[in-house]
Design a protein that fits this description.
single chain, 118 residues, alpha+beta, 2 domains, two-stranded antiparallel ribbon, 5 helices, 2 strands, 14% strand
Length: 118
């Protein structure tokens, strides 16, 4: 058996392993989804998890992607805003949105600001 034939057999075996693992993942995911749906009786998300997330940004007028022409250039991703949203939510739940800017200025040409909620 030549080296080229061995390489072809190895590639073929690797392809079979890869395809079968992808099929197994798909089957296991569909089984898990079906069993989760059966165990909750097809209840909506708020009944299963105790809460439901709703789209409220546009209703509140927060649509910076379409209202600000350069929003995506200034903030390509919004995950760096997540800590601010969590802090605002915690401050709102505590009953006070009193805040102050504790760090403000520029650093290497980039603006920076840090908020502290009471």
């Amino acid at each position: 058996m030549t080296t080229a034939t061995r390489q072809r057999i190895a590639w073929f075996a690797w392809t079979i392993v890869l395809v079968s693992s992808l099929v197994a993942i798909r089957v296991l995911n569909s089984q898990a989804t079906a069993s989760a749906h059966e165990s909750t009786g097809g209840a909506p998300a708020d009944a299963r998890f105790g809460f439901r997330l709703e789209e409220s940004a546009k209703a509140l007028g927060v649509d910076f992607v379409h209202q600000a022409p350069a929003a995506r250039e200034a903030h390509p991703r919004t995950e760096h805003w997540a800590p601010l949203y969590v802090s605002l939510g915690a401050a709102y739940e505590s009953g006070s949105l009193e805040n102050e800017s504790v760090i403000d200025g520029f650093w290497f040409g980039l603006s920076k600001r840090s908020w502290q909620f009471a």
